[in-house]
Write a structure and sequence with these properties.
alpha+beta; Nucleoside Triphosphate Pyrophosphohydrolase; five-stranded mixed beta sheet; three-stranded antiparallel beta sheet; globular
Amino acid sequence: MKVKDPRYDYHITVSAHFIIENSRHQILMAKRPEIWEWAPGRWGLPGGKIYQFESFIDAIKRKTKQELGFELTPEGLYQLKQLIIKDKQAFMFFFVAKYKSQKITGEMVDYKWFDIKDLNKFPSSKFAEFFYKKMLIEFLEKQVKLLPIEMIDSLNYIKLSDTKSYKDWFEGIINKNYDPNKVADFRKWKRK
């Protein structure tokens, strides 16, 4: 009988957010509708949760279309933040893109461009604003290096399991009497 380890009993949220910078070294912030689950009525970066079985690239296209009115291709990944909250964790991926004067027509309440001076005056009485303020000031003050977008990959097991190369690999595993349900007993391993 399997015993569920309570240390793994929590909810995980994965989200993609966008640091969109214009030619004047300003960051686009969006004010969320009051009815939204995360930071309702607050200013933050465009982006949000990734759907179950959705790739990062598909999520980026969906969220930018919804929240900005156009699809955006990021240059790369700036940071991954892990936020630990009471009974859940959030893994937030922050992508960077350059603004190329597209018309912004998304579903947010308002949009504004913020530079360092604006961010320093930004109210931070709520955690979401405090979190964004600190990260974005660091982003604008430093020469940041990005993980190129080409390095971000999603392996969709559901689609992959239908491919010939996967089936060949899996057949090789099966023929070697591999049991994926057996858990390794690490106590039997000896150190050399």
